[in-house]
Amino acid sequence: MQTHDYWLIAAFFTLVLVPAPWLGRYLYRAMEGERTWLTPLLGPLERLCYRAAGVDPEGEQTWKGYSLALLSLTAISLAALFAILVLQGQLPLNPLQLPGLEWHLALNTAVSFVTNTNWQAYSGEAQLSYFSQMLGLGVQNFVSPAVGLAVLVVFCRALARRCASGIGNFWVDMTRAVLYCLLPLSLVLALLLVWQGVPQSLTDYVQASTLQGAEQTIPLGPAASQIAIKQLGTNGGGFFGVNSAHPFENPTAWSNLLEVAAILLIPAALVFMFGHYVRDLRQSRAILACMLLLFVLGLGTVLVAEHQPNPAFAALAVEQQGSLEGKESRLGIAASALWAVTTTAASNGSVNAMHDSFSPLGGMVAMFNMMLGEIVFGGVGAGLYGMLLFVLVTVFLAGLMIGRTPEYLGKKLDAREVRLLVATLLVMPVGVLVLAALGVSLPGPAASISNPGPHGLSQILYAYTSGTGNNGSAFAGFGGGTLYHNLMIAFAMLLGRFGFILPVLAIAGSLAAKNRAVTDLNSFPTYGPLFVTLLTLVILMVGGLTFLPALALGPIAEHFAQLQRY
């Protein structure tokens, strides 16, 4: 690594961690309706939204009412986006007169963006109009992270309240998440990206002549606005087909730093928001320490793996400083490695390099980040409520070891909550192992794998891990745009989204109704080095025991085969 690589990593952690405490307190106040510095500007607009929708902002919902409202919005969003994509050819803002998508590709894309996955089995600049990008995908880039944030807020309230039947109002939480969090931050980032040269235009594509005399079409469009919210909302769907490896989507080293830091900006802040809800910032520091530990372990592994010479070239006596295959050559190995770990630690899925070309161990870290349920910071809201589920599992195991009824922040865990926790632990194995096994067992779907041997298995494992984990990145060699994979990955995305959200809301409803027991010296402390270590080990054990056999047949086998061959 060179000096500027260390500066990049230092700047990244600075941009992510320094604003986190302040932004976390701001988000707590905004989501609870307290006055913030944006209230004079956005307060009237918020009240107008409630009046227009006929929503009583003081009305509370039970967890079942909250779930029904969430599912209703999801169904409406899914139907609307599907219609936009299928009817694209008859809609305005379509300068290239692009036709509508095939129904199964449109369904896959609609599910993808509604579930905050942004899996892309299409090429944005070649298949989608400005209308589809802005009104279709752009709207869901705001709505889907707002849903995740709303569910997290419900979980926080459940742990903080005593004997409460209501857990909040979905429509109020959604409105505040968009108005006070996502909209102002994305506006600022979009302006910064335009300053760095990212296009933001409704003009037609430009026809240009190359130095060789050939004609070339240069795509434009309203890219900066969508790129800003895709990063901040941990969405990840690129305006252009190759995502942030495209020089228009990511033109400079500064845009690269801003975009990669934006992925973790809100997830890191939400950890501190949680501390304000439960009135104990020690809980925030413990969770943040666990996230950082897992993140640094993954980043260190990828940096070491990608800076190793490719054994194939070493056999030819070609001197190397690392493997540049598939990396963004403008930015270097470290920038590509940092982005790969960040985008898979969060449920973002945007890329500035091709993960299919990473070393076996580098690709394995990206895959394993997603297999953990993307709780290492994770998506907006989704990452932290996934981590809190692991916290509850850890508390349950600690209770078994010391012979006490498990409790977290004074809320005792009963059999019902434990059964729901177990249900969430089954989501990733079913979505990844079962669906990937079907894909490799059937002759037609298996033809989408472009590489033989262990790397081919890694391709399909990565695809279904990405779908179930609501990530959206892919090993580029996997041909996922078929009828079978469009439908099965769509199912995986729905399973990965609502297989967590519905149990989380049910657990929240159960915990909110309980009184908070008084914690004393005999209570198991859920902060400090001991708890951080135990939580980290539980996460690694659950992920390792579940997915190690599959990883051994894929990237681990490929790594040893590569060493043996050369």
Please, could you describe this protein's structure?
- The chain is mostly helical and 566 residues long.
- Strand 3 and strand 4 (411-412) form a beta hairpin.
- The two termini are 24 Å apart.
- Helix 5 (103-114) runs parallel beside helix 20 (483-512), helix 8 packs antiparallel against helix 10 and helix 17 (427-441) crosses helix 19.
- Strands 1-2 form a two-stranded antiparallel sheet. Strands 3-4 form a two-stranded antiparallel ribbon.
- It has helices at 3-17, 20-31, 39-53, 63-86, 103-114, 124-127, 130-160, 170-196, 223-232, 253-277, 281-306, 311-314, 333-345, 360-371, 382-402, 415-425, 427-441, 443-446, 453-468, 483-512, 529-565, and strands at residues 206-209, 215-218, 407-408, 411-412.
- The model has no long low-confidence stretch (mean pLDDT 90).
- The chain is built from 21 helices and four strands.
Please bin the fraction of helical residues: 55-70%
Structural class, from secondary structure content? mainly alpha
End-to-end gap:
24 Å
Please identify the oligomeric state.
Answer: single chain
Radius of gyration of CA atoms, rounded to a whole number: 23 Å
**Which stretches of 5+ consecutive residues score pLDDT under 50?**
none
Largest sheet: 2 strands, antiparallel
N-to-C series of helices and strands: HHHHHHHHEEHHHHHHHEEHHHHHH
- The percent range for strand residues is under 5%
Average pLDDT taken over every residue? 90
Write out the strand line-up for the largest beta sheet, numbering strands in chain order: 1-2
Give the overall shape. Answer: globular
Number of helices: 21
Total beta-strand segments = 4
